[in-house]
């Protein structure tokens, strides 16, 4: 049916490749491209020989001309960007130049500023409309599935949605004293930034990890959850009409936070360059180099994740509550695709977003977040492709 260019070769990209190969009727051909072509070749060697034809390519995704040349050579129907968020705009530029649809899992970030904002990518909307191609932003889990969950709730259960609490809980244990479950640089930039939430038309800022609650999550039990800013809050505040309050919460163990505090205190999480033995280095990038690769955590990680949305609003003039969530088992993910659940929960939705574009189900010119499309086919695909969801109409609410 179609061809996909997959940019990236880390843990999430590995899941995307596995899932594309599980759906050869849709993904007849794929090309895996990364700065480190050996990682692409390893995936091809592992998964080649099936009905999905696999190519690999060396690619510097910071170089728009290189991306353009590869797109013109391979001629994909869609580009799945699972590289670094810093590279979103160069890849979008290449898609515009070549007239190819675009999918990513995280919004653009400037390398020198830890800032999560959709404005840079939303600015492409008119150009994508004129080019007649689709840019699907944030087709991971959060952002991604959490937006689809909210759109599904809005379509089927609410006349008005008033509050949304997104809770991302990982009860997995990889056995290391300290490691991050996705790219360490992106992860640490995210959680050391100030928190922010939307209420009554305004953004309210909090000190990093200063807001804490305990929430009893299905299948993993009570966990400490901390308020963060996350990019889907920005798009949901725009696209879910009438919403009054949106917050994002994530779990962290005391051990994780203790290590993080020490690293911050000694300057290892800084993105400001320093001189070391005559060279300019960025402490956070050096820290990334010495921490365990998230793609290597799969064989070690046990336990489950629980990510979902607790929603309050009105239906037929009466208050209504709704909780929709997915529970994902790290060991089951590793048995299926060789990755832990954090990579799995991001990679599967990326494949689904690309699949819906190739099939023409989620395809219209412009730049869109996932909640702007019909949620039903995505929700159906989640159940089919490894991320089944559950519903609770009497959840415990967060104050």
Report on the structure:
Helices cover 35% and strands 28% of the residues. Helix 1 packs across helix 13 (341-358), helix 3 packs across helix 4 (88-98) and helix 13 (341-358) crosses helix 14 (376-384). It starts with a strand and ends in a 7-residue tail after the last strand. The radius of gyration is 20 Å and the shape is globular. The strands form three sheets. Strands 7, 8, 9, 10, 11, 12, 15, 16 and 18 form a nine-stranded mixed sheet that branches. The chain has a seven-stranded parallel sheet with strand order 3-2-1-4-5-6-17, sandwiched between helices. It has a two-stranded antiparallel ribbon with strand order 13-14. By secondary structure, it is α/β, with parallel strands linked by helices. Helix 2 (37-47) links the parallel strand 2 (27-34) and strand 3 (53-58). InterPro entries: NAD(P)-bd_dom_sf, Sacchrp_dh-like_C, Sacchrp_dh_NADP-bd. This is Saccharopine dehydrogenase C-terminal domain-containing protein. Residues 140-387 form the Saccharopine dehydrogenase-like C-terminal domain. Pfam families: Sacchrp_dh_C, Sacchrp_dh_NADP.
What's the helix and strand layout?
Blueprint: E1 2-7, H1 11-21, E2 27-34, H2 37-47, E3 53-58, H3 64-74, E4 78-81, H4 88-98, E5 101-104, H5 119-122, H6 125-131, E6 134-137, H7 145-156, E7 160-170, H8 184-192, E8 195-199, E9 202-206, E10 212-217, E11 221-228, H9 232-239, E12 245-251, H10 254-265, E13 274-276, E14 279-281, H11 283-290, E15 304-315, E16 318-329, H12 330-337, H13 341-358, E17 366-369, H14 376-384, E18 389-392
Helix pairs in contact: 1-13, 3-4, 13-14
Organism: Paenibacillus farraposensis
Domain Saccharopine dehydrogenase NADP binding: 5-136
Protein name: Saccharopine dehydrogenase C-terminal domain-containing protein
């Amino acid at each position: 049916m179609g061809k996909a260019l997959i940019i990236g070769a880390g843990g999430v990209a590995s899941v995307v490749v596995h899932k594309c190969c599980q759906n050869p009727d849709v993904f007849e051909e794929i090309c895996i491209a990364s700065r480190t072509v050996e990682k692409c070749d390893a995936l091809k060697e592992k998964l080649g020989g099936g009905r999905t034809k696999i190519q690999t390519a060396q690619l510097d995704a910071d170089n728009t001309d290189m991306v353009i040349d590869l797109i013109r050579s391979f001629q994909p129907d869609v580009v799945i960007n699972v590289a670094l968020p810093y590279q979103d705009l160069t890849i979008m530029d290449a898609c515009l130049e070549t007239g190819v649809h675009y999918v990513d899992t995280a919004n653009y970030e400037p390398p020198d500023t830890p800032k999560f904002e959709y404005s840079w990518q939303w600015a492409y909307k008119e150009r994508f409309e004129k080019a007649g191609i689709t840019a699907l932003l944030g087709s991971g889990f959060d952002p991604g599935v959490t937006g689809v969950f909210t759109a599904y709730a809005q379509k089927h259960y609410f006349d008005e949605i008033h509050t949304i609490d997104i809770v991302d809980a990982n009860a997995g244990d990889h056995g290391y004293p300290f490691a991050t479950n996705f790219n360490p640089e992106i992860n640490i930039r995210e959680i050391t930034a100030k928190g922010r939430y939307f209420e009554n038309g305004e953004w309210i800022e909090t000190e990093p990890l200063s807001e804490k609650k305990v929430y009893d999550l299905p299948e993993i039990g009570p966990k400490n959850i901390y308020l963060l800013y996350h990019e889907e809050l920005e798009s949901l505040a725009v696209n879910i009409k009438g919403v009054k309050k949106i917050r994002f919460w994530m779990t962290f163990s005391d051990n994780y936070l203790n290590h993080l505090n020490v690293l911050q205190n000694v300057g290892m999480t800084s993105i400001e360059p320093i001189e070391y033995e005559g060279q300019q280095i960025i402490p956070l990038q050096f820290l990334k180099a010495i921490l365990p690769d998230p793609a290597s955590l799969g064989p070690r990680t046990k336990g489950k994740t629980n990510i979902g949305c607790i929603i309050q609003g009105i239906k037929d003039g009466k208050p209504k509550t709704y909780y929709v969530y997915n529970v994902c088992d790290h060991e089951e993910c590793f048995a299926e695709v060789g990755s832990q659940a954090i990579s799995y929960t991001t990679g599967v939705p990326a494949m689904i977003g690309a699949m819906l574009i190739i099939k023409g189900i989620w395809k219209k010119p412009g730049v869109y977040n996932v909640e702007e499309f019909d949620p039903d086919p995505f929700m159906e695909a989640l159940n089919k492709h490894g991320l089944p969801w559950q519903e609770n109409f009497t959840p415990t609410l967060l104050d």
